[in-house]
Specification:
This protein has 118 residues and is mainly beta. The chain is 14% helix and 42% strand. The chain contains one helix and seven strands, in the order H-E-E-E-E-E-E-E. Strand 6 and strand 7 form a beta hairpin. The longest helix is centred in the first third of the chain and has 16 residues. The chain is globular and about 50 Å long. The N and C termini lie far apart (55 Å). The relative contact order is 0.23.
Length: 118
């Protein structure tokens, strides 16, 4: 009985030592124009950047997504699955600092981005 308990504890400890942060995470937003109207069923270019240390800190990762909004202007992406522009999401050390998400949008679906906020 004691051997079984030791084996179970060893399995739990060894399993937990291999855990790591996911290589993607969900992000959802509503895309709106300057008059606060949603971009309905519109193809947009979205650039997402992870910034370390504050809202005006250092960009450690950036990627691009081409999306189509819903009837209400809603879009969903998985950060970590876009076209990488800068950095490597797998080497971001989430435990050393605060990270912020900066979102830029091109309403024409290209790469002429407008900063939507951090």
């Amino acid at each position: 009985m004691k051997n079984i308990l030791i084996i179970i504890i060893a399995l739990v400890v060894s399993t937990s030592t291999f855990s790591q942060a996911p290589m993607k995470f969900n992000y959802q937003a509503v895309a709106r124009d300057i008059d606060n109207n949603p971009y309905q069923n519109t193809n947009l270019g979205i650039r997402v950047s992870l910034i370390r240390g504050g809202s005006s800190g250092v960009v450690v990762y950036s990627e691009r997504h081409l999306i189509t909004t819903s009837d209400l202007g809603v879009f969903s992406i998985q950060i970590g699955t876009g076209t990488v522009l800068e950095g490597d999401l797998t080497v971001v050390d989430w435990g050393i600092d605060s990270y912020y998400i900066k979102v830029d949008m091109d309403p024409n679906g290209g790469t002429d981005y407008i900063n939507m906020g951090v």
